[in-house]
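Notes to self after the call with IL:
- keep both proteins in one doc
- input above output, always
- annotate only the second one for now

Protein 1:
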Amino acid sequence: MSTFRAACVQLCSSDDVAENLRTASALIREARMLGAEFIATPENTTLMAADGAAKLERCLPEETDPALPAFRALAAELGAWLLIGSLAIKVSKTKTANRSYLIDPKGEVAARYNKIHMFDVDLPSGERYRESVSVAGGDRAVPAALPWGKLGMTVCYDLRFPQLYRALAQAGAFLFTVPSAFTETTGKAHWHVLLRARAIENGAFVVAPAQGGTHANGRHTYGHSLIVSPWGEVLAEAGSDPCVIIAEIDPAASQSARAQIPSLSHDRPFTLREG
């Protein structure tokens, strides 16, 4: 298996879809000029709205969403694999899907993944989030084929559910994507350790493009896009501003890590019993 360059595009998306699309496209072009063959953008690539109602008002069904055809055309123009971290896609009068897209170098949609786990939390900082009010959670894990092996697609809050990554790894995924918009509070506390843990537990690369900065509703996201090796090493890291980071990915490193720590073959059934 050949090595390849993977890139994370870090953004600070606003509630202006057209401007976000221009910014993301420019950074995707920059990543391709730097030799990236696989380029990933964050969660909410084209829209960080003030709240769920504002997002729902701005969203469209997949067939009329303006961003998807633009990104498909860009992938075909650049001859690169694009992982569009997520777009808000209207699926009913009251709900959107937080949907990640894998687009191949011919501009075809190779896979879709709807974020499974909804971010419904009350943080010690006073921040309150209820993603499930306006977002329909997915119910299907998605391993997708790349030229270098299988990719496991996830989004943001999914990161806190290790069973999802275990299932993807046991389905053959050697690389996970975790496009995110982590809050500054949770990012400072948990972002690095969770990403490194998912990599180490499964002997997999992790490509985690993030939102960073202050957005339309005053929300602060953490940034620090990361690319992590199967041994848990940070191969590339961003700061807090929009940028591109790149790392060399060797699929054989995943095989090596899994050979040294073959835990994927050591799972055993068990019962849970008190006393």
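Protein 2 (the one to annotate):
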Amino acid sequence: MIEKLQTDIIKDEKAAIIQESPTSSMIFHGLSYMDNLCMSLSRRMGNIWKNNSIRGSIRREYEDILGEEVFDMKVENLSEKQKYQLIYSRVMLQNPQIVYCIKPFKGADLAHRIHIWKLLEMLLDRGITVVDISLNLSDSLSLADRLLMIEHDGTVREIPKENFAFVPRNVPWGTFYRVGTPL
């Protein structure tokens, strides 16, 4: 039953997942930039692969965000920043209601963290809910409007943004190892 539920969520176009290390796991080498960008649209628009006018419209709409030059580049030649833009733009094009981001800042240096943060804000600005599944609390709290903490016993606590100052920063997950310890 759990396996069936998981596949239904992944197949649902109202939800999207940005995997951990997406620039290596979510880029389809051998496909063009445009094919990579339009990958999530094939369900909604079955003729996306044959319809040049739709693809041209997408190109014009996303040129300002992505830059004109990337559409003619091989995905193997893209910079890390351009790869991130491709992946997050693909999700924006899908227009899901919710995006699950698995450790979005993992392994990213400061410049890439700032870029990822801006891309996540773009999703939020479009009204897309972002669920950040991370171990680094400070990265997550910079964008969050609430924090959900799941205790060992399955109890879920919701901490609103106005109480973030009371969340311990030095050992953010320390309470998970002490059952019953209040925040």
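Annotation: The longest strand covers residues 98-102. The chain has a mean pLDDT of 80.
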